[in-house]
Write a structure and sequence with these properties.
Layout lengths: L2 H8 L3 H8 L6 E4 L2 E4 L5 H46 L1 E2 L8 E18 L8 H32 L4 E12 L2 E3 L5 E3 L2 E16 L1
Parallel strand pairs: 3-5
Antiparallel strand pairs: 1-2, 4-8, 5-8, 6-7
């Protein structure tokens, strides 16, 4: 009996049924006119096994969806807890916090960021200087915040809730390269900042 006739008689999806049939162990033949099940196969039993397979697959998919939802909920809760911990993390350039006791030192950590800046096309004097200076300060403030955020991430990864002895190191690069004509190509300036500190665990007195 052809699978298309079985599908029509039992109201099942022919394509999905044929995929299952080819891995079910039931005898079948594939030809130009389609897939045919051996004549000695009990079609009621065959379709019964197929429907049982569908029920198992649906149950498995439902379990996977339920587990996925649980995993997403756990991940969202962990992300929220992490954000709260980072937001409440204390940072100081000193080496203690008033009203707190340091109970654990986890070592030196750092965070980095960098920004490139195009060279001014009309020199450094006059109004151009003020404009370039404003852009530079904004860029430095941005990468300093990012470096500090990365520093906190490093402290959190060590199970710490504070950072002491924080300072910033700055690096300026003035890159250039030779051109094919033997001249010099001046590349954009690169400004980098590193936030340094020591990750600690503190407890309120």
């Amino acid at each position: 009996m052809k699978t298309k006739d079985i599908a029509r008689s039992y109201g099942i999806d022919m394509s999905a049924f044929e995929v299952w049939l080819k891995q079910s162990g039931y005898p079948y033949k594939s030809g130009l006119t389609g897939v045919t099940v051996a004549d000695d196969v009990n079609t009621d039993e065959l379709v019964g096994h197929y429907n049982h397979y569908l029920s198992q697959e649906q149950a498995r998919l439902a379990q996977e969806q339920e587990q996925l939802a649980k995993d997403e909920e756990i991940a969202a809760r962990a992300a929220q807890e992490k954000q709260q911990a980072l937001a409440s993390m204390l940072v100081t350039s000193g080496f203690n916090f008033d009203g707190y006791t340091i109970t654990k030192y986890s070592g030196y950590i750092s965070g980095d960021d960098a920004v490139s800046m195009e060279r001014p096309t009309h020199g450094w004097l006059g109004g151009v200087n003020r404009e370039v200076g404003a852009d530079l300060l904004a860029g430095l403030a941005h990468i300093r915040r990012n470096a500090l955020a990365e520093l906190k991430e490093a402290a959190y990864a060590l199970g710490c809730n504070a950072v002491i002895g924080v300072d910033f190191d700055y690096l300026t690069l003035d890159p250039e390269t030779a051109t094919n004509s033997g001249g010099t190509l001046y590349l954009p300036f690169l400004f980098a900042v590193t936030a340094n500190g020591n990750a600690v665990v503190i407890e309120k007195n």
